[in-house]
Amino acid sequence: MKFLLPLLALVLPVAAIEPGFTALYNGKDLSGWKRVNGLGEYKAEGPELVGIGENVKNNTFLRTEKTYKNFDLRFDMKFDTAEGNSGVMIRGLQKTDKEDGRVYGYQCEHDPSPRCWTAGLYCEAMPRGWLVPNKENKEEAAAFTAANTKRYKAGEWNSIRVLCEGNHIQIWLNGEKTVDYTDTAAEAIPEGFFAFQVHAGKATHVRWRDIRIKEL
């Protein structure tokens, strides 16, 4: 038996969760989540949550049933290929005037393109668009790409942390801060759900693991 236990640990790895944190994904199925808006697909593959899109017309989201205010969210993500685009909605909402309840709100970007804006802060389906970096500021945008080209690990797992306290939003990519933004706009969102995105387009193949949260 003493030889069997190490073997099981290799076959069924369990990520250590920091004190005070709870897992958002149970590692078995999509209980507590629901797909909205598009026809992208999501699968539970052991410890990994997988998002797949092939010629998807609309952005698709796998959202939590529960909403959250202040939190420390941590997870790893990677793209199987450099195609497509993805992200994680933080304090996401759904529009009540649309039949499909279009998802909108803050998004932690996942961008495998040469632009490399992974862990930037974007306003999904809102006129505000990019908050960090400021897309209209060419120098800021170029500096974000240059820094992220060194931080982001293409084809590998990347660690992301999102800390939301009131209207203060901070994001880290592989231990380095990418976003430190205080939202003073009237459109600031104080509470919402988490949602994993499969972006519309020809193809998206993205994975997440070790998804955990500490409510503050």
What does this protein look like?
The protein is mainly beta and 216 residues long. It is 10% helix and 47% strand. The protein is built from two helices and 15 strands. The strands form two sheets. Strands 1, 3, 4, 6, 11, 12, 13 and 15 form an eight-stranded antiparallel beta sheet that branches. The protein has a seven-stranded antiparallel beta sheet with strand order 2-5-14-7-8-9-10, with no helix packed on it. It is globular and about 45 Å long. Mean pLDDT is 92; it is low at 1-14.
Query: Distance between the terminal alpha carbons, to the nearest Å?
Result: 42 Å
Q: Which structural class is indicated by helix and strand composition? A: mainly beta
**Major sheet details:** 8 strands, antiparallel
Please bin the fraction of helical residues: 10-25%
Radius of gyration: 17 Å
Query: Overall pLDDT, averaged?
Result: 92
| Low-pLDDT regions | 1-14
Count the beta strands.
Answer: 15
Task: Report the principal-axis shape.
Answer: globular
Order of helices and strands: HEEEEEEEEEEHEEEEE
The proportion of residues in beta strands is over 45%
Separate helix tally = 2
Features:
216 residues, mainly beta, single chain, 10% helix
Summarize the helices and strands and which ones pair or pack.
Layout: H1 4-11, E1 22-23, E2 33-36, E3 41-45, E4 48-56, E5 60-64, E6 71-79, E7 86-94, E8 103-110, E9 121-124, E10 129-132, H2 138-151, E11 158-165, E12 168-173, E13 176-182, E14 193-198, E15 201-215
Antiparallel strand pairs: 1-15, 2-5, 3-4, 4-15, 5-14, 6-11, 6-15, 7-8, 7-14, 8-9, 9-10, 11-12, 12-13
